[in-house]
Design goal:
Blueprint (H helix, E strand, L loop, with lengths): L11 H16 L3 E5 L2 E8 H13 L10 H13 L4 E2 L15 E3 L24 H4 L4 H4 L4 H12 L9 H10 L2 H20 L15 H9 L18 H11 L15 H14 L11 H7 L8 H13 L3 H19 L12 H13 L9 H19 L4 H20 L20 H25 L5 H14 L1 H7 L3 H9 L42 E2 L1 E4 L7 E10 L1 E2 L2 E2 L7 E10 L2 E8 L3 H9 L19 H9 L11 E5 L2 E5 L4 E5 L6 E6 L14 E2 L5 E8 L5 E8 L14 E7 L13 E2 L3 E6 L2 E3 L1 H11 L7 E3 L5 E7 L9 E4 L2 E12 L2 E10 L10 H4 L3 H10 L3 E9 L20 E4 L4 E5 L1 E4 L4 E7 L2 H4 L6 E8 L2 E9 L5 E4 L10 E4 L9 E8 L8 E7 L4 E8 L8 E6 L1
Helix pairs in contact: 2-3, 6-9, 8-13, 8-17, 10-11, 10-14, 13-16, 14-15, 14-16, 15-16, 19-20
The protein binds fe (ii) ion.
The site of fe (ii) ion has 7 residues, from strand 26.
Amino acid sequence: MAGPGPGPGPYRATRLWNEVTRRFRAGMPLRRHRQRLRSHGSCFTAAEAADWLHQVLRSHSSFGPDVSRQQTVQLLRKFLKNHVIEDIKGRWGAENLEDNGALYRFPPTSPVKLLPSPPRENLGNFSGDKGKLSKLPSSSKRGLKKQEFLQSVENLTRPKADVAGEKKESTLQRREISQEYVEETWRNIIQIHLQTILGLPSLEEVLQPAQIIPEFVMYNMSNTSRHGVVILQDKAEDLPHWVLSAMKCLAYWPRNNNMSQATYSGFERDVFRTVADYFLSLPEPLLTFEYYELFVNILDLLQPHLERIAVEALQICCLLLPPPRRRKLQLLLRMVARISGNVDMPRLHDAMGNRSLLIQTFSRCVLRCAEEEDLDELLSTRLLSFLMDHQQEIFQVPAYLQVAVQDHLKDMEKAQCKKEKEEICAILPTYSYCKQITPQEFEEQKVSTSQAAVAELLENIIKDKNLSVKDKKKKLKQFQKEYPQIYGSRFPTTESEAQLLENKPTLKQPMLSLRKPKFRSLRVEHPAGGYKKLFETVEELSSPVTAHVTGRIPTWLRGSLLRCGPGLFEVGSEPFYHLFDGQALLHKFDFKEGHVTYHRRFVRTDAYVRAMTEKRIVITEFGTYAYPDPCKNIFSRFFTYFKGVEVTDNALVNVYPVGEDYYACTETNFITRINPDTLETIKQVDLCKYVSVNGATAHPHIENDGTVYNIGNCFGKNFSLAYNIIRIPPLQADKEDPINKSEVVVQFPCSDRFKPSYVHSFGLTPNYIVFVETPVKINLLKFLSSWSLWGANYMDCFESNETMGVWLHVAEKKKGRLLNLKYRTSAFNLFHHINTYEDNGFLIVDLCTWKGFEFVYNYLYLANLRANWDEVKRQAEKAPQPEARRYVLPLSIDKADTGKNLVTLPYTTATATLRSDETIWLEPEVIFSGPRHAFEFPQINYTKYGGKPYTYTYGLGLNHFVPDRLCKLNVKTKETWVWQEPDAYPSEPIFVSHPDALEEDDGVVLSIVISPGTGPKPAFLLILNAKDMSEVARAEVEVNIPVTFHGCFKRA
Ligand SMILES: [Fe+2]
């Protein structure tokens, strides 16, 4: 449903309107509804339309996740007014639509707006277009006095240092370069830069030359205060004094709150209302009606990876504004940015956070279309949010424009001196960014440059010292086949070829190779789509197969690597839809005296056994609904529904030990005991029977004595919700199954009565338990009522809380007591804790986060992951962005420290600020960040450093969700080491320490890698030296191995 929207260009707003209305008509589900004893076909309720459209708008690149439901309802009203929809009796034209059960339908007529036909008049005569200009109030359009304008021209066209020396000479020259010429130069330079930044073939119809008023630009650039705010000569055009005071009061709250005057509770709300009322009463938006199309075109650039470009474009566009508008906008943005970042500012609205309130209130004061029927509200929300976050950079004066104009005028002066008597042609700057060439030249260049690149590739193969002779021969042979001519010219004789290969000395692989790791750029592409093999069904093995080892397996490495993942991605013709739906396959690599074997078996869960028996999907999985048995009659099907939800036991996520046993698991109440030697399934265990939880994560903490801690949601009586920490003691002398002795040791409260947060892992230190409550919520009411009746699955029951941000909770591990401290930070998704430790009264909590509240799992449908590379990238662009972060939580507070940063540890930039409402606002230290590149599936030297101060973590690098590298990260220095190979797709790296290790990273890292392009052995187990991530050995197998999520190393 999500889409990139129409590209840049003219009439973008109208094209967007048309796109949204078309999509709405095409995609909005129509159903039969009953109303007042009558049945109506093919219609929908207003609330259903709001649900559907809200989703579409939020995932649309032009509007983004800030769109509120209220704005969606507003748009539906516009749809009703413009006959995009009509009520069930065929009425339209009013705007009386409410977010309720009233019925609406689509009219048979098309709602699409016609695009205006392209203007034919000479663009240079724009000012003659009275229709457009009449929208611009005359006071703002030509508000500058002639003298001020000349002053501006003077300031800008002459470099200040030159003034004294060149006074005499320049008098003559300046007389000759007219003001009109200077103006024209500015206009041209602005046009060229803007066109290049926006990537448009022409600015025609987006910004016409006459809309660039050089006197405004020059004034805006030269008349600024030391803070960079435009100063107006005519004070009558400025904000009224009382508005300025009110804005100042809010911007510097509470410092500038004049305490000598009596204030009262809610004072700040009244001040805010005063400011809001003033801006809302302005007849025209601050960006003016005239530049509406221009700013709408910039919306496409408001994406994280294009941030720099968007800032540059906005920098230029905001220079075009009449100075009084620019000043008002600048002051407004400075104020809203300050309020939204001010932790001491009380809530200005009961139901909305301050940031949301500011965006909702002021967006239409900033950008609005003169025509009523437009999507401007949604567009302006997005633009204001960006302007707010980048206001400082956007309002900086771009010196490069000034330099470009000066340079051009200087050149002109010189030209004039030389050819005083010659007529000066208007040689306007023509910044050519690429030289046009003929088609023939293009073809020639294409051949010569690509041939050169191929020849370079051959040289790289020849010179590659890391290739074995065998591999080099193989690659050369392949090359010869593809490019016989280039190969022939490099090796004209067979002797020259033989010489190269024979002279190569045979390299022996040392046990732990000290080869330097290869640092690669993050930009690796996967056009061949080899990653699709990660999501293909495979068969289990009847007995272990021997792997082919290259390099030498360390002799101390003895034991089994056990891992879990999906292995069956469809049952007959019924596909599973989500990454977490395929049926659980258990994998094992055994290491014994330098030899490696590989084995795998499907876990005989109920979900698997019943699917095999009935040859269809029987149990609803995470993102796949299991349809009822078609053989049952309607009554028995009805009673099956009412029996309630059959929860899946598909144990595809992890495998871990409890006592002497091993369990494969997912995240529900069922775990499955397996035999770690034979991989046979032993029995299903229902945790609900032992302890009060409705599920448990796949990431328990296991202490060195064997104690297991885990966390799970608990839905108690009367809908009481909590997150319970369960403890399973180690195996005792009586040999009784430790699960029988499970107990709840801590209960964390839930931020919402009906909606627990999704929890995937938690933090544990010797004395504390950390639980991070994220805004990804499970709507329990949906889960319990609608699921079995409406054909929904687990994914349908998730929703985001857009205002809560993230809450962190801490409990004392031994006493089970909650710390009465309210840690808060901005919204992110969290799946994996890296590590947590205590240091001098602080807890250091390292996390792999994904920024924002939108659920990352929405992007993990198999259709997305199996798409072609360009599509995979396109999808990932829209998803929350990853970042590994360190949060530091003070374990005690002193109220006297309100407003201060409580973190006193010298080695971190993370902060914790105590606010007046006694919440502690956390800002993280970023420990790893790469655009669209995640450091995920983190592992550490857990046995020795779990819960303790540590230095290294190992992770899987996700490139737009495709796993394509293994990384080691020093969390102190942020140094990284990377293992990567073309078209190779690794899995979570498991660290196994050397038995006599002295240092934290003495040991190896194990990962299953698939490398589908290289021949008969499409997968291998990779062993890396944990010191520098260099390859020690690999054990190749002749079968494909689909994606695995988590696992463990069981020492022999
Ligand atoms: Fe996980």
